[in-house]
Design goal:
Blueprint lengths: L2 H10 L3 E7 L5 E6 L2 H4 L2 H15 L6 E5 L4 H11 L2 E8 L2 E4 L10 E9 L3 H12 L3 E10 L11 E6 L4 E2 L5 H4 L12
Parallel strand pairs: 3-4, 3-6, 6-7, 7-8
Antiparallel strand pairs: 1-2, 2-9, 4-5
Helix pairs in contact: 3-4
The structure holds zinc ion.
């Protein structure tokens, strides 16, 4: 699946919107990604998982670790594609943590999987969870990479598509300057 095919799946599912959006960060953008809208379709989730699995199989991971909630569905699909465990870390009092009896140890070779990577902050945090458990972290993978700095997680980073989306402070937003109404995505649901 090439990059355009991946973005088309997002567009066709309403997971990639074009307009004038107020993001949860407070910044404004002309595009909005909501990967849950493509991943809600099991067949599409499986295709994306197969594609990411093909991209990362050479690393020979033994377990997929994803940050909750966004990474869980695609993490499960990558785990299925590779025939390995898929577990997730979730926030407890602000910090990502392994709960529910999930474990990692020194024998584990971990692939961190997310739906979308932007700044890389949650990816780095997830990597740290695995390292703190003593596991070896091989790299990170995401369906869409929204950044343009391949070194920001300090490990090999794999993605199916790149989509660099400028975001603006409201006072510097070109769409606000044109009086285009701004929408908070998902708020009308
Ligand atoms: Zn704006």
């Amino acid at each position: 699946m090439d990059s355009e095919a991946v973005l088309d799946l997002f567009r066709d599912s309403g997971a990639l919107l074009e307009g004038h959006f107020r993001l949860s960060s407070g910044l404004h953008s002309e595009r909005y990604l909501q990967s849950a809208l493509v991943l809600q379709f099991p067949e599409l989730a499986a295709r994306l998982g197969d594609a990411l699995g093909a991209r990362t199989r050479h690393l020979q991971p033994t377990v997929v670790l994803s940050p909750a909630l966004g990474g869980i569905v695609i993490g499960q699909e990558v785990g299925r594609a590779l025939g390995i465990r898929a577990i997730f870390a979730e926030r407890q009092e602000g910090a990502l943590t392994l709960r529910r009896g999930f474990t990692l140890d020194r024998a584990d070779r971990v692939l961190v999987v997310e739906d979308v990577i932007t700044t890389g902050g949650s990816t780095r945090e997830t990597i740290d969870v695995a390292k703190a458990a003593g596991a070896h972290v091989l790299g990170a993978a995401a369906i869409i990479d929204r950044g343009n700095d391949a070194t920001r997680v300090n490990l090999p980073l794999f993605s199916l598509a790149q989509l660099v989306v400028p975001a603006y402070r409201p006072e510097a937003c070109p769409l606000c300057a044109k009086d285009v109404p701004v929408v908070k995505p998902g708020s009308r649901a």
